[in-house]
């Protein structure tokens, strides 16, 4: 059961919730923009469906609605930002702006972030660089859900990495991926619809493959990309470790099993070694390597050649990274954003608490 | 059947071959060092076993033994290097030195490379940065062997990416991985030993899973990390695409199916859009983000915590990325490097051609 909303309705509603939390007008607009971008791009797990989660963390005083976000360490092209426990939705764009400014001056800019919270979709931040004809990088660590190869313990988040490249006549190429075999959002969909998941996504409390999507609630864990050692799960683990080290260890944020949980009902770990969760973002000017026009001409050619790959089935073409999200964005910008009823109810419960006008389907 | 050699015997032999090709003393020493590092670290597929392959490419005039390697474009922290068709084994260290010098001055340095050849193991280059208390990055595109998700055509190399981090009391954390489900070297071992490979490594000419390790010779392809769409092969494809774009499209090298083959009996593609193969390397100063001591203390703690993960079987601990290679290096430095007889014969055939003293097992 879905209700459908225009982008502008969901956007004002979301802004109002953030303002009710005490966010500045500027931060409310930005945070809503990050969430809406996710819904528009079809990544329902990271959009307004998470809004009530942010509110609950704010209620527990784990999110600071009026953070003093600042650079605490820097060189010409590197910096560490302290997010002051603010919304990752505003902290990460701050960090990306710093990276872009450094890249404008020196060719590249790299910012590690500590003391932040969940930053929405990585693609939002990486795309900020693409708009300036730069290559964008964004990653974040996250609450531990994933067991390393051979482990029977949740040690890592689904730790996404994103790389975004500006093309010429085509939309940007955007690789934006969890480093686990399946994103947690896919598991949640299976839980909601009562379907089993494929072998290779999760293990149960004994460390065995299971198809039960609820196994995470009884001591199970998500598996790294590659699923098992034979198929390269040590590589998924290595990628996730890379995200964790660049985001957490490099910034002074938490890492590994100490990354604070997104859900407010779970308390952060005692004796945590760092501050909040960590991100890592970067930007490199394309014209730091070759003329933008030459790069874009070749990337357009790359896209055309890959789209024209010989296929196994005539009906299924090769998909350029970022293409499905772009198609969803075009479709939902026109036709509105569908939300499952449970999400709408959840959002309206928040609205009621804050005394804000409720959502009414209008698309 | 193995013969075992001391490191110094294999090193002088390899230097002599490169000198016989016309390489300078300096280049011969460096190129041999890169190959030996691979053999020492247990990555047999990328060590001296490849030496005769480099010689054959040189005979075909596709490798230039006396390249004029130079920067052709740069900003304060970015550069593009033209390898002048030299050995990747010397071109990539040149590029890494440029990246490190830029990082020393400005915090980070990033170098895209065109007109190069196979660069050995990515870890060698990334470790150059680690020695300077920097984080090292190295990747390269390679001859097309891998089919993107849904494709029945080899469009990408096994395109490795490497991230290397300096620790304190522990050895560096080194994530060095092919972005395919299995590296080509593993397939070659199965071919040699007549064993089947697991489902999920390769597809046959019809695009179906096969366990026949010879399927690549009859129109098959390696699969991206993730193996199939359900298990995230689009992510492995996305990572491989990232390596291809950073190494090939950004530098002006070839990319995708146009990357020239390593084997001399296959001709490079006609109408290739770029020059040679491409690499991408980078270095970031740890103290560009926080004091080196703090980072290393936390990374040591990270390593300890991950090594202490609860495990599924008592007998199999979690492996820190880079650990198996470091253990191999310690063992082989002491006990020598084993080479299969076929490789020794192949090397001695090259020695005979050049009139150089042959290899004799001495460890």
Summed up:
Two copies of one chain form a homodimer. With 363 residues, chain A is of the alpha+beta class. Chain A is 38% helix and 16% strand.
Note the main attributes of this structure.
homodimer, 363 residues, alpha+beta, Hypothetical Oxidoreductase Yiak, Chain: A, domain 1, Ribosomal Protein S8, Chain: A, domain 1, 2 domains, 7-stranded mixed beta sheet, 3-stranded antiparallel beta sheet
Structural notes for this entry:
The structure is a homodimer of 363-residue chains. The model of chain A has no long low-confidence stretch (mean pLDDT 96). Chain A has two domains: 1-66 and 324-363, Orthogonal Bundle (Hypothetical Oxidoreductase Yiak, Chain: A, domain 1), CATH 1.10.1530; 67-181 and 223-308, 2-Layer Sandwich (Ribosomal Protein S8, Chain: A, domain 1). The longest helix of chain A has 19 residues, at 88-106. In chain A, the strands form three sheets. Chain A has a seven-stranded mixed beta sheet with strand order 2-3-4-11-5-6-7. Chain A has a three-stranded antiparallel beta sheet with strand order 9-8-10, with no helix packed on it. A two-stranded antiparallel ribbon of chain A has the order 1-12. Chain A has helices spanning 7-20, 25-40, 51-59, 88-106, 122-130, 184-193, 233-249, 292-307, 323-335, 341-354, and strands at 2-5, 70-74, 78-82, 108-116, 134-140, 161-165, 173-177, 202-203, 209-210, 221-222, 277-285, 337-340. Chain A is globular. Helices cover 38% and strands 16% of the residues of chain A. With 363 residues, chain A is of the alpha+beta class. Chain A has ten helices and twelve strands. In chain A, helix 1 (7-20) packs across helix 2 (25-40). In chain A, a hairpin with a 3-residue loop joins strand 2 (70-74) and strand 3. At the A-B interface, strand 3, strand 4, strand 7, helix 7 and helix 8 of A face strand 3, strand 4, strand 7, helix 7 and helix 8 of B. Chains A, B: This is Ldh family oxidoreductase. Chains A, B: Belongs to the LDH2/MDH2 oxidoreductase family. Chains A, B: GO terms for molecular function: oxidoreductase activity.
């Amino acid at each position: 059961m879905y209700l459908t909303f225009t982008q502008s309705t969901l956007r004002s509603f979301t802004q109002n919730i953030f303002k009710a939390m005490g966010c500045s007008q500027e931060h409310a607009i930005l945070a809503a923009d990050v969430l809406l971008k996710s819904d528009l791009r079809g990544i329902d797990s990271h959009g307004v469906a998470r809004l009530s989660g942010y509110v609950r963390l704010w209620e527990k005083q784990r999110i600071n609605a009026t953070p003093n976000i600042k650079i605490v360490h820097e060189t010409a092209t590197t910096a560490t930002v302290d997010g002051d426990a603010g919304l990752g939705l505003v902290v990460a764009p701050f960090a990306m702006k710093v990276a872009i400014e450094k890249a404008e001056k020196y060719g590249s800019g790299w910012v590690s972030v500590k003391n932040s919270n969940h930053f929405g979709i990585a693609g939002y931040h990486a795309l900020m660089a693409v708009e300036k004809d730069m290559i964008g990088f964004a990653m974040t660590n996250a609450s531990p859900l994933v067991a390393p190869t051979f482990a029977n313990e949740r040690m890592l988040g689904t730790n996404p990495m994103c790389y975004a490249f500006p093309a010429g006549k085509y939309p940007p190429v955007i690789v934006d991926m969890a480093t686990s075999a399946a994103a947690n959002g896919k598991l949640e969909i299976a839980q909601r619809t009562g379907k089993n998941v494929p072998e290779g996504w999760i293990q149960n409390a004994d460390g065995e493959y299971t198809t039960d999507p609820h196994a995470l609630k009884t001591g199970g864990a998500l598996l790294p990309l590659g699923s098992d050692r034979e198929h390269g799960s040590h590589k998924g683990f290595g990628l996730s470790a890379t995200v964790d080290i660049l985001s957490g260890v490099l910034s002074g944020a938490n890492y590994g099993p100490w990354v604070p949980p997104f859900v407010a009902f779970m308390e952060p770990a005692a004796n945590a070694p760092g501050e909040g969760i960590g991100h890592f973002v970067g930007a490199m000017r394309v014209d730091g390597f070759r003329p933008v026009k030459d790069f874009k001409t070749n990337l357009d050619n790359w896209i055309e050649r890959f789209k024209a790959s010989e296929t196994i089935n005539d009906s299924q073409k090769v998909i350029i990274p970022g293409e499905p999200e772009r198609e969803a964005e075009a479709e939902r910008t026109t036709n509105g954003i569908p939300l499952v009823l449970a999400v709408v109810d959840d959002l309206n419960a928040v609205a009621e608490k804050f005394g804000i006008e409720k959502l009414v389907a209008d698309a």
